[in-house]
Amino acid sequence: GHFYPDGVYTQGGYSTAIRAKSQFVFPIPDGVESRHAASMLCGGLTVYSPLVRNGCGPGKKVGVVGVGGLGHYALLFAKALGAEVYAFTRSDKKVDDIKKLGADHIVITSEEGWNKPLHMTLDLIISTADTSHAFPIKDYLSMLWVNGSFIAVGLPDDDLPAVNAFTLLDNGSKLGGSHIGSKEEAIAMLKLAAEKGIKPWIEELPMSQASKAIQGVKNGKARYRYVLTQDLE
Description:
The protein is α/β, with parallel strands linked by helices. The chain has helices at residues 34-53, 71-80, 95-100, 137-142, 165-169, 183-196, 210-218; strands at 61-65, 84-89, 105-108, 122-127, 144-152, 174-177, 202-206, 225-229.
């Protein structure tokens, strides 16, 4: 934190109140609860922005890699935008959740030949994967239709696997990334959430138990975002 000129010490995310300029705040629609908007303005916008910037909508086939804090939002928003949604997950542990989140198709990537039936099928893939070890990026690129895009929003610690230029030539696929989104996109996202009744899957904890939330994220127990409620004085 930092000190204001009057000596008040800033508390960051642990603050009980905030004063900010109007260009840095966002109007929350009546149909969206604050506890839902809280994580939408972080994880939600992280996936909403690349979805809309890359044409997600009716008639499009969109893949989402990984079903966690970011991935569950990608499924909710891709479906709400009108796309046909494919969820890619490493095991069948989250299949029931994925169905409830609205995915039209579920692909288990630990199964032999999982990508072959979808060769040159998808218009867009949003990857929320937070690991790059043995990540089958070539298999994912092979599933893109002509000029389709693979957009990475997950942040693995290590480099992505190498991609040969010829891998991109077959379908003219594009490999890119995205970082949060604009204020205009944030307002549009909140409006969509209000209109479609989108509610993220969250677990609420008092702010005094923030360490419990951190451990839950590290242990993969979050379903699917933790939201902290202020209980500090």
